[in-house]
Design brief:
four-stranded antiparallel beta sheet; 4 strands
Length: 181
């Protein structure tokens, strides 16, 4: 079965969401969020990823991105592959991870259901890419991304959430360099 969501224009700007299997709340620890941030930064520096907006929630990541080299699908694939391995390794080794056993068991259970995996599955297969053609759609998705932590009750103001580009749009220090939409 093919997905209705595809990256068709290699130069297009896309709103992408990827979530953990079972919507498991992994990103409640700074260590795991930092793996994603560091990987995004690597993709910016080495793979031509241009980030316009981003946010890491407890169980999913939102991005507005494009590729300067025309391989957004490959970059997202590599990002998800690398981060899944690193996060699973970090969960296994984390000295204070009280959820280790049940999380790893769930990731193993999801991995067993998917013939594309050898052992574990961390991310859901799909990214739900939506090409952002109009400025209105770009602004709408950017606002949606930045308001996610506010709507979840994590912060009162979008720019107060460290793991989001809302800080950049507010002129504050941020974890990742971005290009404004």
């Amino acid at each position: 079965m093919t997905s209705k969501y595809k990256i068709n224009d290699p130069d297009g700007i896309y709103f992408i969401t990827f979530a953990t299997v079972g919507w498991i709340d992994v990103f409640t620890r700074k260590d795991y969020k930092d793996i994603v941030v560091n990987s995004l930064q690597f993709c910016q520096e080495e793979k031509g990823l241009i980030i316009y907006s981003w946010c890491i929630m407890s169980n999913h990541v939102h991005l507005i991105v494009r590729s300067s080299v025309g391989d957004l699908s490959g970059t997202i694939r590599d990002l998800k592959s690398f981060t899944s391995k690193q996060i699973l390794k970090s969960i296994s080794a984390h000295p204070k991870e009280s959820r280790r056993e049940w999380m790893l068991e769930l990731f193993k259970k999801y991995g067993a259901k998917n013939s594309n995996n050898k052992t574990f599955q961390f991310w859901q297969q799909d990214n739900h890419p939506k090409e952002l053609i109009t400025n209105h759609f770009k602004d709408q998705k950017c606002d949606y991304i930045h308001q996610n932590p506010v709507k979840a009750g994590i912060v009162a103001n979008a720019e107060d959430y460290l793991y989001s580009s809302a800080r950049s749009y507010a002129g504050l220090d941020a974890l990742l360099d971005i290009e404004m939409i």
